[in-house]
Amino acid sequence: MITGASSGIGEAFARALARRGHALLLIARREERLAALAAELRARHGVRVETLAADLASDEGLARAAAAVGATDGLTLLVNNAGFGTRGYFHAGALDEQERMHRLHVMAPVRLTHAALNVMIPRGEGGVIQVASVAAFARSSYNASYCATKSWMAVFTEGLHLELREMGSPVRVQALCPGFTYSEFHDVLGIDRKTIASWLWMSADAVVEESLRGLARGRWLVIPGLVYRWFAAVVSKLPVRLRLAVEARNPQRKARAGGVPITR
Ligand SMILES: NC(=O)c1ccc[n+]([C@@H]2O[C@H](COP(=O)([O-])OP(=O)(O)OC[C@H]3O[C@@H](n4cnc5c(N)ncnc54)[C@H](OP(=O)(O)O)[C@@H]3O)[C@@H](O)[C@H]2O)c1
């Protein structure tokens, strides 16, 4: 079961898992994109693919998705991937946008993970991947809610990992923390990719392969790409004053900061 499967990293998860012969339940808002992907994967790999059009930032959409978790026979993997970014100062953006982000990045994973673990733990198998971000290790202006919600995902996952280990459960959890990844994420935000150095970009396929390799090895934290593993290691060890000084000097971030949030 993959949320945010209509594009980017979620779509790459769907392709990678269909290639491995798994039946899929794909969730996102754009029904026609899901239907086209499902038809292609059925034809190409002969797997069962169902779709659920739902806005996971809404109570109604999230309730339908959570019900689907309970009703999915033999659910072996939940990927909480749906997400988006915003631009500009927290106070200047629409409050509704900020609330939607917290619902999508926090409440949707809470509810879907709770439902999934209650199916997986008694059965003694399964895994949950939370698609967080390297932003989980940063605290930056213009991205206050994004960094905070992605940090939450990583901390939540670490806690679940500890609980599962303590219980001796074979169920696995993973916080996947990618850096800049080719997807529709920056198009939705209205950010020109050329403003970000080309060597920082990874393909969604490469991110997903590292995640699935990590899951097979039981890794609770996967940061794809050496440059981002280095970034996370350094940033999380910097004294707060030094981190703030580095952040304040980031000219690209300042250039990107203007403008209003753009959403689908
Ligand atoms: N791209 C990057 O550089 C990057 C880096 C680190 C982490 N991430 C994280 O990776 C995840 C996937 O993003 P992406 O890069 O693949 O971007 P993307 O191509 O824009 O994909 C985002 C997905 O989330 C879905 N989505 C958005 N709002 C939704 C809602 N309210 N309800 C249900 N689905 C919703 C979108 O589908 P619909 O519009 O059809 O609903 C789409 O399938 C996000 O959590 C993002 O924060 C991305």
**N-to-C order of helices and strands:** EHEHEHEHEHEHHEHHH
Tally of structural domains: 1
- What's the CATH first level? Alpha Beta
Our count of helices gives: 10
- Which value, in Å, is the CA radius of gyration? 18 Å
- The averaged pLDDT comes out at 93
**What is the rounded distance between the termini?**
22 Å
How much of the polypeptide forms β-strand, as a percent range? 5-15%
The CATH architecture assignment turns out to be: 3-Layer(aba) Sandwich
Quaternary status: single chain
Written account of the structure:
By secondary structure, the chain is α/β, with parallel strands linked by helices. It has one domain: Rossmann fold. It is 52% helix and 11% strand. The chain has helices spanning 8-19, 31-45, 59-71, 95-123, 144-167, 185-189, 204-216, 226-235, 240-248, 251-256, and strands at residues 2-3, 24-28, 49-53, 77-80, 127-131, 172-176, 221-222. The protein has a 4-stranded parallel beta sheet. A 3-stranded parallel beta sheet has the order 1-2-3, covered by helices on one side. The longest helix is centred in the middle third of the chain and has 29 residues, at 95-123. The protein binds NADP nicotinamide-adenine-dinucleotide phosphate. Residues 3-10, 28-30, 33, 55-57, 81-84, 104, 131, 133, 178, 180-181, 183-185, 188, 264 line the site of NADP nicotinamide-adenine-dinucleotide phosphate (NAP).
